[in-house]
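Hey, quick one: can you model this chain's 3D structure?
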Amino acid sequence: MLNITEIAHQYPEYAMGIAFALALIESLPFIGSLIPGMLTMPAIGWLMAQHKIPPFLTFILIIIGAMIGDYIGYYLGFLCRRTAYERAESYHKTHWLEAGKSFVKKYGALSIVIGRFIGPFRSSIPLFAGIFSMHIIPFSLAALPSVLLWAVIHLAPGAMVVWVNFDILKHTHFLINSGLMFVTILLVCATAIAKSILKLPSLSYTLNKLCGKNHIHRENAKTRVFQTLCVLSACICNSLLIQRGGYHDINIRIYQFFSQQSSLMIQISLLQNALCYIPLTLVLTCLISSYLIYTQKTRQAAAFSISVGTTFIICFLIKYTINHPRPEHIAAFLGNQSLPSGHTSLATAFLLTALHQGKKSTASHMITYLFIIITMTTRVLIGAHWFSDVVFGWMIGYLGFLIGQIIINRLHIATIQDVANKYLGLTATVTNAGGIVSHSSIITSYCMIAWLLAYMTNKLSIVPYLLTP
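Sure thing. Here's the predicted structure for all 469 residues.
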């Protein structure tokens, strides 16, 4: 019989490929239940702990393999969703399909996390998710933390054997940093599947007490409070991780990867950054809020003002309290207030608020998240921030958005309107001005103004961003 564990020990150069293949196969429907992962994966963990294979790269390959297996199962289920019951009847397995349906409907996206650790069920849950048309975004965000947890549990026994034989105290720093990073990822992913998690009775009861029984938007308020607590906890864990130097190696590797950037890439990045220029974002927020108040959309106006304003205050309090250094080549030009990224924070808060107020189509979600990711990438590409800065900036922006939503849910429209009329001197006259100018014209005008302002203030000069020889 083929012994995968012995092959991994005798041929460590093949162990990375074996680890990837095992993770993928274990996640495939039906086949995955036949693979003894708890017997084979510890051998990979043993090789990783002894540095016979690259630990970080191997771990990433395991995660990718498991995610690919999950996506294969999901799409097989999605393709067979119309004929699933007919096929189940032909094999006399309708009870199996009903059990899967009940489990997925009861726990939602959380079923992906729970199901991975339920024996014969573990490889079939992605298939059920596809059959019963779970949305791909909650599925993906639930699959990632479950795969991370699964990999850690399966690799840990082999690694612990090595560490106990040597001195586990030498690895305490690594273990704490890994734990903080895992908890941070888990908390962020929990915000995306909050509605599924809130189906747990004990948690729902606690949040009912916090949100009040008679609140008009109680269900929405519960979700926002839970998401805010998760993101706030993630921010704390992430700040501890940064303070402990947990991002140091990642920051350096990414910085070196972008260190050979061309002048063209820098110029493109600066053009994109000009659209997120902080003073311009604040002015745009004020203009949009004023217009929304003028058209009696006072709740939306307050959402923009509170979310972006809260983000700005939190971001710059942290910036000028910590004074975290930027990359050396840019510090003299931009100063040492690197953490968190202000461009990323305000862009995240502004765009998420805009997305929440408008029509929530798949295209609008994709454009919003893509713009945020591009903003994060370009800030790192030009060397204005470390990778850890933009990640923390995104968290602060998300936190500001959630705080704004909680405050708005607790305010009455009349209260907001009274404040607007009293302090801004604006009337509540309803107008149809919104239809005069198209969205494309507004976006084009904003881009032209942003680039003109950046040119006039010398923000488009690439010279400060070039690495010194």
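One thing worth noting: Residues 168-246 form one domain.
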